[in-house]
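debug: dumping io for the single-chain case to check the tokenizer round-trip. Nothing else runs in this session.
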Amino acid sequence: MQKRNKLRNGADVIYYSITYSSKAKHKRVVIAPSGVRVVLPLGSSREEANELMETVKRRVYRARDRILKQETTLKGLTEPAYVSGSKVPFLGNELQLTIMYESRKRSRLEYNGGLIVRVEAGLAPKAVKDEVRRKVESWIKKQLLEEALIVVQIFGRRMGTLPKGIKIKAQKKIWGSCGRNRIINLNWKLGLFPRKVFEYVVVHELCHLQHMNHSQQFWTLVGSIMPDYKKCGDWLKFRGYGNL
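debug: decoded output
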């Protein structure tokens, strides 16, 4: 069994792993929700990793505490329960969900400051939940497209570039993408997140219209449009996945 490496700060202990990379030119510390890792160039010794951790100890503990605090905050940011009386998050707001049972064959969703889904009386509980989910997700996708068009007009005109189109999709591994066809794709679940995070993803993809990479030029452009973009990027990473 591999010996675990420890960083101590009084009674507080952080465990970290050590990995070696042929691509690494310098020693570095990677801090993520999954744990702390020291990456070393080939030929480095374990002692170098330990010395590095001692040197950056304060920074590691601060970052660890910030991650734990952010994870606690994000635990409540899950998909809606899709039951009457629950809250549906949409771009930083919480919308009251009400389910009403009526003599109808086709369900319908209405917005009146909250969401009302009218469904057929007599449906099994699972069928009701599935129908409500379908209606709510459809509403979010439609509203998110309208919001995305507004954001694109604001930031795109400032940048002097606009996409050929915007699509809202149910992507499993990414929040957004932009292909050489100049069409921006956005994950519908962005609608469940704060507006600032949603706007960051739109700006990120807009910048890909000028730089189809993640070069320094690309990030400089992102920063010129949204100076605090790193906070939004970190927020997305803590959701469990977050490629752009």
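debug: round-trip ok. Residues 87-139 form one domain.
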